[in-house]
Fold:
Amino acid sequence: MPDNYRAKKAYKQQMESAGSGERTNSSGIRLKEYYTPQDFKKSYEDELANPGEYPYTRGIHKDMYRGKLWTMRMFSGFGTPEDTNGRLKLLLSHGETGLSVAFDMPTLYGLDATSERAHGEVGKCGVNVSSLKDMEIIFKGIPLDKVSTSMTINAPANILTAMYAVVGEKGGVAKSKLAGTVQADILKEYIAQKEWIYPPEAHMRLIRDMMVYCTRNMPKWNYISISGYHIREAGASAVQELAFTLADGFEYVKMGIDNGLDVDSFAPRLSFFFNSSINFFEEIAKFRAARRIWAREMKETYGAKNDRSMKLRFHSQTSGYSLTWQQPLNNIVRTSIEALAAVLGGTQSLHTNSYDEAWALPSEQAVEVALRTQQILAHETGVADVIDPLGGSYYIESLTDKMEEEAYKYFKTIEGMGGVVNSIKNGYLQREIAATAYAHQKKVESGEMKIIGVNAFVKEDEQPINVLKIDLKAERIQRKRLQDVRLKRNNSRVQRSLERLRDVYSGDENSMEAVIEAVKNYATLEEITNVGREVFGGWKEPTIV
Amino acid sequence: MEGTNDSMRRRIRILVAKPALDGHDRGVLILAKAFRDAGMEVLYAGLLPTPETVARIAVDEDVDVVALSLHNSAHLSAFPEVKRWLKKLGANDIQVVGGGIIPPADRKKLEKMGITGNFGPGTPLEQVIDHVRKVAKKKWKMDQ
Structure:
């Protein structure tokens, strides 16, 4: 795309010097020319401590990557359940034990492949699941007692958890032995990713049901991965990501305690998912601040006694937003720097994005480069040899303190509005993010913020790259399969189990058993979510713009 | 005064929408703000409207331009669907502009179906705004 607009503007900007003036980071924190011992005067024991010691600023493990490297967990899923089953088996044959499944948009919104709204979207951004049958195919021949499965699913997380439990049971693996994670962080859906089905209170109740049920029956199932990733991608600054994500985390902790669970019985199972973006030191400070805040609050405010409840474990992913369509190979460099920030920030697992993701879903070649990036970091650079190597840097410590301070200002504002759910319902969190995104965009437009290939060092002719193409075959197969499921199942049993679910949803008892029963009878994903739609209603976002 | 000058001076009414199962609204919210700052009257269809709903809002609100954004690779089915509904509702003059993660090969297909712009990531806002102004003028001419 010869891009006269950018080319002209960029030329003009390159002529102007970038010399003088104030420097700030993505969070609007003003940066000094350099930092000195004056900038960090707090006590080492109280604020930092050695790795593996409270408040875990320097890392949650004593030996960190010397004991065990971070997990290179590449997220995948596409097309039909058969396609994904093949991919998962391939990963297992390469020695992976941690699976990570992506679902398509209809599944994420609780719709069947046969829904009119699903047209053109089945199997596109992940694998399609419309009934238990699809889950049986995805995990066919995979030993569920030996692997752990991470499922990126939120609004219908209770249903997918139920399906996984039934697949396990049918294959002779007890629920108590199933290991894995569902994302199920509905708060960030309202704040950022916007994949919901019902109003916030209804979803929170379903998460509560899952939390209580799994705490008692599925001890190896992590039922919430509290996610800042999407908040950041939607436009938040690093501080906003930090503050809003931790605020969401505390909301789930409060919910567990309010429902009679002992904090130490469930908090060790909560984990986090952060973005690792391009402003290198800011990201590292963010991860360190997150660990310290979580540890403090869990101990002092929520009364945790078990160390594991205080240790913030997190997965990270490099920033999709930072990738450019222009000069796509530059994205390999961006991803490497972001991955390094996550490692220096002490991540437990990492997904690196592929260089072609501003063009389409990643090609196999691009995915391989992304994985190799992590392997080079792990095995060639020596960054895994020493724990928290930036600890004690005047700049990093000062920035970590500042991020913490700014996050507390947001906690106070959110609390003043009556908590996270209220600040979602009045649109505050969404508007904060949209305002930051727009301010950022204006800086890009004016050239104050430089993006190589986009508004600086622009190339006149961009050569197209080879990208992955996905056809409509998956849609046809999935529609047909679902029709077969409907013909073969016992429809009166389906109706009875949906009736039972309606009663349970209308009351306040735990709904997980009823969901499991409906799933077992091959009620479809949409039939089950429709019961919720009838009982709870839908959700319309407050005005953001 | 003849209508021409008047219509050139009138404010552009634009509907921004994501006509599919796609919650990635960073871009669409930025566009809404940018169109407003550029002096347009902006309507936002909210999240998850069907193509039919988008077309009906466009007709009911008498907009000049519908700006569609998708990041979930449903553009080839959803954008033309909006166009088809506009035609069905007798509003073929309403201009449809697209954007999002759209591979170059798909851009050509969309252009052929009368969906213009089809801007990819990193497009300057100024370029999008200029394009909207251009197609709005085209619509006003058609209406005369």
Helices of chain B lie at 3-9, 26-37, 51-60, 75-88, 104-112, 125-143. Chain B touches chain A at residues 20-26, 29-30, 32-34, 36, 42, 44, 46-48, 50, 72-74, 76-78, 101, 103-104, 120-122, 124-127 (CB under 8 Å).
